[in-house]
Design goal:
Layout: E1 6-11, E2 14-19, H1 30-41, E3 49-54, H2 65-73, H3 78-97, E4 103-107, E5 110-112, H4 114-120, E6 124-128, E7 132-134, H5 148-156, H6 158-167, E8 171-172, H7 173-179, E9 184-186, H8 191-203, H9 207-220, H10 225-239, H11 243-253
Parallel strand pairs: 2-3, 3-4, 4-6, 5-7, 6-9
Antiparallel strand pairs: 1-2, 7-8
Helix pairs in contact: 1-3, 3-4, 5-6, 9-10
Amino acid sequence: MSDEPLEVETVDDRLVLTLADPDVRNAISLDTATALLEEFESLDPSIRCVVLQGSGGTFCAGGDVGAMIEGVATDMPVDTRIEDYAVPTNRAVQAVSECPVPTVAKVDGPAFGAGAALAIACDLVLASDRAKISFGFRQVGLSVDSGTSALLARQVGESVAMDLVFTGELLDAERAHELGLFTRCFEEGEFEQRAAGLIERVASGPTLALRHSKRLLKRGRTRSVAEAVDAELEALSETLASADHAEGATAFMEQREPEFVGE
């Protein structure tokens, strides 16, 4: 394990980011938030998928409670605490949510508070059956942050979001999957293999088309059907001219699997 709170690895055409501070259960420190933000802001155009995972049996325990305790103990001004700790964490989760290429969270253990928001900020959340998730900001006497008010309500609806936040309930993998917080749930023994297969499927897809599809789906909630159709036609004008469309159409006619290059 490196001394860095975020391990960065490029595997073929995907970026794998591993939260690597198991001593604090991969809590999002200032260093971690800064590193995450830097990676997403400087994303190489050749990357076709980003994978976010935790280490040491935990996805992410949430915000830096040590920093919270220090802020209380030293009577640090609230504005300073927000600027030094809350803003970087919130911006990091926002950057994950706004990443233009597909993002996949691998949750093999607990995801708590801001760590839960970090997971559902990804497009797909793949979980093992030992994964758990909680939006338990109430446990430290705080209101929701890290985009939770938007991300969670969109995933499960306003009433269920209220329930999960008011109670801080720790959901097991099955219940989280039922609610749509976990996209797929696999048995622990086959988690790595099944997750790898799905990530390969996403990463080897027609990246330009998936980027447009992601953008359209995210905006689709606030658009009328007419507005959605206009936006889709605009995207089609670019994807119809792509190499991947030509390959996909040809492969379909030849009854073979397409070999997309991401262009």
